[in-house]
Specification:
This protein is of the alpha/beta class. The chain has a single domain, classed as Aldolase class I (TIM Barrel). The protein contains 10 helices and 13 strands. The strands form 3 sheets. The chain has an 8-stranded parallel beta barrel with strand order 3-4-6-9-10-11-12-13, surrounded by 5 helices. It has a two-stranded antiparallel ribbon with strand order 1-2. A two-stranded parallel sheet has the order 7-8. Helix 2 crosses helix 3 and helix 3 packs parallel to helix 6. The longest helix is centred in the middle third of the chain and has 21 residues. The radius of gyration is 19 Å and the shape is globular. The mean pLDDT is 96. The structure holds flavin mononucleotide (FMN). Its cofactor is FMN. This is NADH:flavin oxidoreductase/NADH oxidase. InterPro entries: Aldolase_TIM, OxRdtase_FMN_N, YqjM-like. Keywords: Flavoprotein, FMN, NADP, Oxidoreductase.
Length: 349
C-alpha cells in the first residue's frame, strides 16, 4: 500500500491519499458566495492529481466567520455557488469536500493582507460583529466574545445541521468540521479557553459535551453513506492545555459519534502555544491516534514528495498538503509519471 492507493470511507472511494488541505482564500463576495477566484484556484488543484480537494473553512453562520470575506453555507445563493465549485472539482478528477467552520472567539478580524499581516479586531461599526465563545475570554488582539447561553448553543447546532444539509445538496462527498486551531469546538474542549462552571465546563468529559453535540448535529444533516472528518489538535502545546492523553479520549468519543476520520492539526489556541515546524509534525502523532479506533489524516510541513512515502501507511491513512500546493498546483503530479497528468497536457512531455 502506498500514498497512491485508494481509500474507502463509508460509500466514498478516494482515488489516492494526497489531499488539498483547507486554506482560506478570503475571496468570497460580500454575501459569502464563492467567486471566480475560487473556481480558478480549486479547478487548478483538482487537475493536479489529488485524491480530494478540501474547500477552505466555510462558515455555518454570519457570526461564525473569521472575516467578512469567508465563504458561507447558510443561504440558497451560497449553495448555488458551491454547486458550481463542486462541478469544477469533479471535472478535474478529485473528490469534492468542504470544511465547515464555527470560528468562536477567533471571529471578526481583517483579512491577512490588510494591516501588515497582523490579526486585528474589526469593530461592529466598521462591519464587524461580536464573537460568541464558551467564555468571555478574548484571543489576543481580537474582541471580547460573549459567553454562549444555552439558546446560543441551540442556534449553533441548528446552523451546523443546516450547513451539513446544504453541503450535501451542493454535491460535496466528504465533510470536515474545523475542530482545531482555536475555533469554537477546540475552545470548548480546552481548559485554556473554557472556564465555564455549568454542564459545558469542568473536567474533560464535561468540556466534551457541546463538541459532541456539534458532531451529532452535523451527522443528522449529512447522509449515512458520506464520511465525516473532524480536524483536531493532537495537543495544545502549552502547559495546562489539552494533552495527547486527553485528545485520544476525544478521538475515541468522536469515533463513537459517527466520525470516520480525524485530521490532526495542532496548536494555535493561544498565541503562546508552541509551534511545530519539522516535516510531518502532525503525522508523527498518527500511530498514537490510530489506537482510538478512527482513521487518521494529518497536515503539516509536507514539502518534499519523499514525505508522502514516509507518512503513508506508516504514520497516517492520508496526508493533507497546504502551502506546497499553494506554490504549485501540480506538486503531486511531479512525483508521478507522465501518464498521471491530465491527457490535455500530455503533449507537454
Ligand atoms: C493561506 C492559508 C489558509 C489556511 N486556512 C485554513 C483553513 O481554512 N482551515 C484549516 O483548518 N486550516 C487552514 N490553514 C492551515 C492548513 O490547512 C495546513 O494545515 C497548514 O498550512 C499546515 O500544512 P502545510 O505545512 O502543508 O502548509 C491555512 C493555511 C494557510 C497557509
Amino acid at each position: 500500500m502506498t500514498v497512491w492507493t485508494r481509500l474507502r470511507l463509508r460509500d466514498v472511494t478516494l482515488p489516492n491519499r494526497v489531499w488539498l488541505s483547507p486554506m482560506c482564500q478570503y475571496s468570497a463576495d460580500a454575501g459569502g458566495t464563492p467567486t471566480d477566484w475560487h473556481l480558478a484556484h480549486y479547478g487548478a488543484r483538482a487537475a493536479g492529481g489529488l485524491g480530494l480537494v478540501m474547500v477552505e473553512c466555510t462558515a455555518v453562520a454570519p457570526d461564525m466567520r473569521t472575516t467578512a470575506r469567508d465563504l458561507g453555507l447558510w443561504s440558497e445563493r451560497q449553495l448555488a455557488g458551491h454547486r458550481r465549485l463542486v462541478e469544477v472539482i469533479e471535472t478535474g478528477g478529485s473528490v469534492p469536500a468542504v470544511q465547515l467552520g464555527a470560528a468562536g472567539r477567533k471571529s471578526s478580524h481583517g483579512v491577512p493582507w490588510d494591516n501588515a499581516g497582523t490579526r486585528s479586531a474589526i469593530a461592529p461599526e466598521d462591519g464587524g460583529w461580536q464573537p460568541l465563545a464558551p467564555s468571555a475570554a478574548p484571543f489576543a488582539g481580537l474582541a471580547v466574545p460573549r459567553e454562549m447561553t444555552s439558546a446560543d448553543g441551540t442556534r449553533v447546532l441548528e446552523d451546523l445541521e443546516r450547513a451539513a444539509r446544504n453541503a450535501h445538496h451542493a454535491g460535496y462527498r466528504l465533510l470536515e468540521l474545523h475542530g482545531a486551531n482555536g475555533y469554537l469546538f477546540h475552545e470548548f474542549l480546552s481548559p485554556l479557553a473554557n472556564r465555564r462552571t455549568d454542564d459545558w465546563g469542568g473536567d474533560l468529559q464535561a468540556r466534551m459535551r457541546f463538541p459532541l453535540e456539534m458532531v451529532r448535529a452535523l451527522r443528522s444533516g449529512w447522509p449515512e453513506g458520506k464520511p465525516l472528518v473532524v480536524r483536531l489538535p493532537a495537543e495544545d502545546l502549552l502547559a495546562g492545555g489539552l494533552t495527547t492523553a486527553d485528545m485520544t479520549v476525544v478521538a475515541a468519543a468522536l469515533g463513537s459519534n459517527g466520525v470516520d476520520m480525524i485530521d490532526l492539526s495542532s496548536g494555535a489556541l493561544v498565541p503562546e502555544a508552541g509551534r511545530l515546524t519539522e516535516p510531518l509534525h502532525n503525522a508523527r502523532y498518527g500511530p498514537l491516534f490510530r489506537t482510538a479506533g478512527v482513521s487518521v489524516a494529518a497536515s503539516g510541513a509536507v514539502c518534499e514528495t519523499r514525505h508522502l512515502d514516509e507518512a503513508v501507511p506508516e504514520l497516517v491513512d492520508a496526508v493533507l498538503v497546504g502551502r506546497a500546493l499553494l506554490r504549485d498546483p501540480y506538486w503531486a503530479l511531479r512525483t508521478r509519471g507522465t501518464e498521471s497528468w491530465p491527457r490535455q497536457y500530455h503533449r507537454a512531455f
